[in-house]
Fold these 4 entries.
Entry 1:
Amino acid sequence: MKIAVVAANGKVSQLVIEEALKRGHEVVAFSRSQNRSKAENFVQKDILAMTKEDLTGFDAVVDGFGASTPETLPLHTRTSQHLADLLSGSKTRLIIVGGAGSLYMTAEHDVQLWQTPDFPEVFRPIAEAQADELAELRKRHDVNWTFISPAADFQADAPATGSYLLGGEEFFLNDQGESVISYADYARALVDILESDDHIQERISLVRK
């Protein structure tokens, strides 16, 4: 497959690139700063400056964008919508590295994790921003998007276990009663998902097995 990874210098993006290259895929990395990934094919460009031509011919586009300051949080929605506009009407998949905060806590889907009293206050703004991003993606029926939420405890430096559990819209725990996954296992799962034809226009979630 030919895969574009946008915001390629992020930790998750770099691991996705490594995993995809290990499997023999062709990867082109896009970032507004100099390349820090292992991708040999690199384009230095801001997401919002990218054009339809930049993404022509790809089987999948992975959006690893992340922001945390109040003035940049709306860029979660703005950047993913820009990518969706560029891919509109094409067969190219758009895979979004999402957050856990938008996972539902009830079968009725009326409460999200970020809205619960015990959710850490420091993470509430970014969780709400990514929940808004997902809400806007749900309106898109012209793009083959997939939004992948990690577990609540998303561990940057934890080792890969090589296994994971796949869930849907609702928050869930593994057999040890944990909602945890490493960046490395998330990256592996993401590449598994983009290699498949499954979960088009769906939000899915992951925890460590």
Entry 2:
Amino acid sequence: MERSSSSQPPTRGPARGAWRWTVIGGAVAGVAVAFGYVGGWLAPARLTPHRLVNALQANSGVYPGFRRNHAKGVCVTGYFEGNGAASEYSIAQVFKAGRTPVVGRFALPGGNPYAPDSSVPIRSLALKLTAPDGEQWRTGMNAMPVFPVATPQAFYEQTVATRPDPKTGKPDAAKVKAFFDAHPETAAFRDWIKGAKPSASFVTERYYGLNAFYFVDAAGKRRAVRWRVEPEQTAGAGEVATASDPDVLSQDLTRRIAQGAQKWKLLITLAAPGDPVDDATKVWPAQRTTIDAGTLVLDHVAPQDSGPCRDVNYDPTVLPQGIQVSGDPLLAARSAAYADSYLRRTSEEAGVAGVARLSAEGR
């Protein structure tokens, strides 16, 4: 049948086709912009893991194959002897009664793996606990009860403000003062650091998790917690890290472990309603309920360049069922920066052409 002369064919001309391609193109462009923003490519002033790690490198220099922070360290292994006391609050297998293998690392803050052990008053202890079902709990703790800043941006600004002057090798006092004046949340940390007296041994320090997390029990109830480890061994009278040997801490650790296993109690503090959960600059009152969850036992030591901790990324957001991250913004930033640092150092070790260079440039 012939069409009536009054009927018109459907519109399929260039105008409609152009409109369709405009919509598709716009969607693709939107996705590209989103990825560009997340990656920092279209927002160069935005803080990214690359920029943060680059700032750490600028302060300490680049030492290929080493971590960009806490570069100087030593591997330790042992186990966690859970006593079951924390199982009421978390279904994580590590809190059941029994042993969980541990790969740990003692270290010093900073990016120089050859810095003398007495150069900084803070030590760190990172742990990887692997449960029988293969789930892991990774945690990085520091020998200080409070963190100086609450946000990644403030940490970045602190890193830049404390950058050593090439001429003097020391930070510009005026820039440091200006930073602290602009960040009153650092007051608790500054009060602590004034009287800090670091021990001459890794094994006589207490180490704090600093960030809050959530424990989840069998009924699905969440409780905000913080953890720390308290040493069972004690320091000698008046013992501080003033020895002239630049490696006094690792040597002391080797000697002590050769004499016997070193032990800490794992203490879990439960938050009360109203306690700050997303701010590591705020301490919780001392009277909060604290649970003795078991004993950390470290009985072997190995160099970090060949020991079992060498290739471990101690990302604090690697958690088993029964432990969840809080909304503390430092946790996500630590995870991302650790990943960036890990990529750089492992690429350098493997000699992957161009990867370390591109990463170091922040691209």
Entry 3:
Amino acid sequence: MSMLDSIFGFVGKDFVICAADSTNARSVVVMKDDLDKIKVLDDHKILAMAGEVNSIADLSEYVQKNVMLYSLRTSISLSTAAVANFMRGVIAKAIRSRGGAFQTNMILAGYDEADGPSVYFLDYLGTLHKLNYTAQGLAPLFVMSTMDRHWKEGMDVDEAIQLVKMCISEVRKRVLVQQFKYTVKIVDKDGIRVLDVE
């Protein structure tokens, strides 16, 4: 599985924020530099993915369509926790039935009226954890210490943007394959929006 992607996300006061590099690179070749690795699942949930492009496309579309189908059938929107557990089941079933996993690691982020903002770590083996902040791909090697030091409970949007900038700076400073562009999305009670942090 490719580890040249960098994604990370964390919880703020009343929002969740995710960032992902926009580079599609394998080995020393950059094939694309405007890939959006943060997929919108519904009005209040996003899924950041690192890994093989075909696995990212297959899994994100499958989850997105099933979340939408459930909402249409029941008129109930799934919570972020419910989507995380559904995804974990999909991954576990794929490992056992097809003889191979989806080659992708993920961060699920969302905002629920009842529970507020939340971030879930999922890997290609179906490991699932709810965390305050997390990273996948290359990013954990460089940004976890930054988030350990600077993340705090109840961060406002301006503080969160500064932390995102610090994390992006750390990755850019240390990764050989340059990741010039990043997509940053925030989810709160008003929905999902893209932030310009450059």
Entry 4:
Amino acid sequence: MMNKKNVYKLFLFLFMLLAFFISVYPLLWVVIQSLKTETEFLESIWTLPARLNFQNYATAWNDAGMSRYFMNSVVVTLVTTAVNLVFVTCAGYAFAKLKFPGKTFFYYMIIFNLLIPTAIILLPMFTMVNRMHLVNTLPALVFPYFQGFAPMGLIICRNYFEDLPDELMEAGKLDGCSNMQVFRKIMLPLAKPILATMAILSAMQVWNEYLWALTSITDESKYTLSVGVALFNKKTETVGYTPVFAALSISALVIVVVYLCMQKNFVKSIAAGAVKG
């Protein structure tokens, strides 16, 4: 006979299994549809494919121009993530460990951006980008994406650096290190888990962003993958549905792969925050 502890563990396991299924099933369903022929999809959306049909991926990648959109997204994501890591990490360290006039004021002014809906600043951002002659260029995406990620990234990074002992800074300064050397040689190596977390969050935000990419880019050759997939979705009457599912799978699975590659450090940062918090 099961005791209360084992019943609780079984209930918790079943609940987690259900949550996992609910989370994964939509992506799994899309991948299954992408491997069907058009006839199989139209016959039933609930059956498995008779055989794996990878031609849909070739159609999406070559005929629909997904390869070009994919490379645009990769470039924008990598550049934006690098910019986010450099500037947000430096700012997080400064707000956590350094003393300077207006420190609290500037911190809350940056955080205040989280309260502003994107739709409200869409027109001002476009006007600014247009005056800088950056419309229809990839840099038009990078800087607004940085502005969008900076407040959340600053909160994460600042809190992490605040939890690191001040004695580490003092020891470094006793050895003759400047503030920048302390940051680069002592603090930064300890921040690898939080850097991985910010990289994942930044990449997800940039990779999936649609509204600003659609607003600031009108040249089809400069479209990102999210805009390209939406454009491709309008061509179902000519190319069919299954290649569109293949394009969606390509877009979604990239983030899954990135997370799996950086999962170890991501989990470390969550565990560290739980212990220190």
